[in-house]
Automatic annotation (TrEMBL):
A molecular function (GO) term: FAD binding
Annotated protein name in UniProt: FAD-dependent oxidoreductase LodB
Lineage: Bacteria, Pseudomonadati, Planctomycetota, Planctomycetia, Pirellulales
Gene: lodB
Pfam families, per database record: FAD_binding_3
Oxidoreductase as UniProt keyword: yes
The FAD-binding domain, residue ranges: 5-309
Species: Stieleria bergensis
Length: 411
């Protein structure tokens, strides 16, 4: 590490790595810092098809194709009674190559992104912890204080900090700009299984979302490479983690309540212990300021149900990186400049958030809604693909809101 950089990026997940790659490629002296050892484990293996575009910008699509990861061509929903929807095949909606995506091992995927940032000129260090972000008398960024794995503390001067610290949300907590959504306080318990029953043919790599009988929880089914499948259960935090025994007992109890999943695991073997995460949904009320900008989960987190996290992080990283490069070019490192992309991004993210709330409305059925409104099949597929920045993405929600209201009145 040098003692001074133009830009310091904290956190080497998809958001931080993509931002560092773009700023370094744009000629800025960039430092990328990760507190854990790279590669490191992370959940969130399923990509949205629109991930293709930020990966293309980073020059990584060919490497991803050659990685051997499971190709994902579809998603499917299974009701609390075990009834399976018709798969949503992305290429039926859009025949371009970008409609195929992947189920990735995040340790390998994130390492690929980390290495790409280094290739493009960023100084990339792991096992280095952020202790503080420093501001000058005008409330603008002046530097960061870091501590490496040898215990050495370093004060690094910089003009811009890109916060990609994930759910740690360092700057959002420091500046008290983080707002938790009380309606989406979830917890996840998950693990990995060998030889779970997958779909057939092109549907073999599908992400499958399965509801339990009482709709108090749902399971993800994400087929990875080498015959391994990620299986996770998500429900309200109190329901999953309080007063019901161990998380493993809760997981197994919910599994018995999931008629669509139990047959898929009859001959499967679990690999290792289960893992736990609190998936609280939150958003920041300010996304950028003088000399700083937030990306990825440091800016906000919605919910894991539609696998939007990695795509959102990559897209935000590219957008933020461009804004920082442009800011240095024009001599403008204000919050308005560094966050000039956030309004457009947040408008698109609204559609995913609305679909998440619809999913958690027990009285509402997406399958029934699609039977009533087949004209919205393409619009819904757009959201599942991640094509949320087109005006068409909004078209289905007027009818969906009305359908939700009617479903609630009928109970």
């Amino acid at each position: 590490m040098k003692s001074e950089y133009d830009c310091v990026v904290i956190g080497a997940g998809p958001g931080g790595c993509s931002a560092a790659a773009i700023t370094a490629q744009g000629g800025l002296n960039t430092l990328l810092v990760e507190r854990e050892s790279v590669p490191r484990f992370h959940v969130g293996e399923s990509l949205m098809p629109e991930t293709y575009w930020p990966l293309q910008r980073l020059g990584l699509n060919e490497r991803v194709k050659e990685s051997g990861w499971q190709v994902k061509k579809s998603v499917q929903f299974v009701t609390h009674r075990g009834t399976e929807s018709a798969p949503f095949f992305f290429r039926q909606h859009d025949s371009r190559e970008s409609s195929d995506t992947w189920q990735v091992e995040r340790s390998e995927f994130d390492k690929m992104l980390f290495d790409r940032a280094a290739e493009l000129g960023a100084d990339c260090v792991d096992r280095t912890r952020l202790l503080d972000v420093d501001f000058d008398d005008n409330a603008a960024i002046s530097g960061v204080t870091l501590k490496d794995d040898q215990g050495q503390q370093r004060n690094i001067k910089c003009q811009v900090v890109i916060d990609a610290t994930g759910q740690q949300s360092f700057l959002a907590n420091k500046l008290k700009i983080k707002e938790v959504n009380p309606d989406l306080r979830k917890a996840a318990v998950w693990g990995y299984y060998k030889d779970a029953v997958r779909g057939d043919g092109e549907h073999a790599g599908a992400t499958i979302i399965l509801q339990t009988e009482n709709k108090e929880s749902w399971f993800w089914f994400i087929p990875l490479s080498r015959g391994v499948t990620s299986i996770g259960c998500v429900g309200d935090n109190d329901y999953m983690l309080k007063g019901r025994g161990t998380p493993e007992e809760t997981f197994l109890e919910e599994l018995q309540r999931c008629p669509g999943l139990t047959p898929r695991l009859e001959n499967a073997t679990r690999l290792g212990d289960l893992k736990i995460a609190k998936e609280f949904s939150y958003m920041t009320k300010q996304h950028a300021g003088p000399g700083w900008v937030l990306v990825g989960d440091a800016l906000g987190f919605i919910d894991p149900v539609y696998s939007s996290g990695v795509y959102f992080a990559l897209d935000m990283g590219v957008r933020a990186g461009d804004a920082v490069v442009e800011g240095f070019k024009n001599g403008d490192l204000s919050g308005d400049q560094l966050g000039n992309w956030t309004d457009d991004f947040m408008k698109g993210a609204t559609w995913v958030r609305k679909l998440v709330h619809a999913f958690y409305t027990k009285e509402f059925s997406i399958g029934r809604f699609m039977k009533e409104h087949p004209e919205h099949h393409g619009n819904l597929t757009n959201v599942l693909i991640g094509r949320i920045f087109d005006e068409d993405a909004s078209q289905l929600f007027a009818d969906m809101d009305e359908s939700i209201a009617q479903a609630k009145m009928a109970v």
